[in-house]
Task: structure prediction
Amino acid sequence: MTLPHTPAFSLNGRRALVTGGSRGLGFACAIALARAGAQVWIAARNGDELARAVELAATEALVLHPLALDITQTQRVEEALSQLPALDILVNSAGLARHQPFLEVSEANFDAVMALNLRATFFISQLTARRMREQGIAGSIIHISSQMGHVGGPQRSVYCASKFALEGLTRTMALELGEAGIRVNTLCPTFIETELTRHSLRDPDFHRFVMSNIKLPRLGKVEDIMGPVVFLASDAAAMITGSALMVDGGWTAT
Result:
C-alpha cells in the first residue's frame, strides 16, 4: 500500500472568466479564484463597476482583468472570447431576478430573466466549451444556480424556471462534454446578502420565511461560496461533474 496523493486546490497557471464578476457573488468568486492562483477576467456591462472591482482587488495585490461585455449579445461574446487565451475555468455568475406573483408576470420580465439566466449562460458556455475541446483543455464550467433550482418559492416562478432549466442544462453538458475531460457543475446558494437580495430581505415577512427554511441560524454570506467555487474549479473535484453543490444552509434537506 502507498500513501495517496491529496489533489491540489491550487489554480496556478489556470485562466478563468467570471461573468457578473464586478459585484456580489461574481466578485467573490473572482477574488477566490485569483487568491488560488488563477489569472482572472471579470465580465460585466457597467464599466464603472468593473473599474471599482479591479481597484478593490488591487488593494490585496490581486489582478482582475476587466471585460466590458453584455453577455446576452452572443456575437459580441464570441468576439470577446476570441481575444482571450483559451480558458480553463468559466464561472457563470451573471443573473437577474424580477419577482412577481405568477398571475402577474409580464412577457418583458419573463424574457429578460430567461435571456440572461439561461440563454446567455447557454451560449457563452457553448463557445467556451468548444474552444476547450479544440485545445484539449480539461476545463471546469461552473454555473451559479440557486437552491431555487431545486425547490419552489413565492413570487419566483420565472427565476425558479430559469434555474431548474440551468440544472437540466448542466447535466446534459456533463454527459456530452465528459469525454473531452470538461467538467460541468452548479453551485446552489441560499439567500445571500447581496444587492440582488437586499430589497426582498428588508421585508419582515419574507425575512421570517427565509430564516424558517435555512436550518443553520443565519443568512448566507458571499464568503460561503468562495471555497466551493475554488473546489469545483480545482483538481480536488476532478471526478465531479453533472452535480449540484448545495450551499443552502440545509434548505433543501427536507
About this structure: Strands lie at 15-19, 39-44, 64-68, 89-92, 140-144, 183-189, 244-247. The chain has a mean pLDDT of 96. The longest helix spans residues 107-134.
